[in-house]
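hey can u check if this looks right to u? its 215 residues, i copy pasted from the old doc so theres a chance i mangled smth
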Amino acid sequence: MTDRSIDSSTDRRSSALLAAACALGVFAHASIASAQPSPPSGALHGTVDARPAAARASAVVYLETVPGTFRPPPAHARVDQRGLQFIPHVLAVLRGTTVDFLNSDNVRHNVFTPDGTRYNLGSWPQGEVRSTPFAQVGVFRQLCQIHPEMQSFVVVLANPYFAVTDAEGAFRIPNVPPGTYTLKVWSERLPTTSQQVTVTAGGDVEVHPTLRRAP
């Protein structure tokens, strides 16, 4: 065997070893990158201040834009028609969620909305349920043609980082990815308000949004 043949064979082995080492390096880098833990999530909590004070109840507090793709939950949300009222009065859901409308009264009820992609679920007796998915972001009034005094709202949001305030205006939004966001508050009585908030990894940020009548 000539020196040239030996050199050529050695070069081929060296190239193969180098290629294998590079491949292992890329694989190891990818494995390390995928193994890096995500930063711990944070939370938002606080109380909505409103004038009139009654408007602080059943307000929807939400983050306007959060990166990512969010699938709706498999479980349906529910609105009951009981005592000639929609319960809850305000329901917030992730886009794509299906809502069941139950009739618990001993009279027939109807559900329809004039907003967005309009629908009319017809009328049905006590104990029955009608369902509809909410695929469009927005605020949808829920009305009853049989009892025009009945009204409620389904607020459909693009991400799961939202909460409905209690009677005192308190809310909490858990598991928020660290970042800076626009926090908004919707109320049926007052104009929507917004402010910037920054959530830190593992932090629990306290905010007190304010709702006021338009000047």
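Residues 1-10, 16-35 have pLDDT under 50 and may be disordered.
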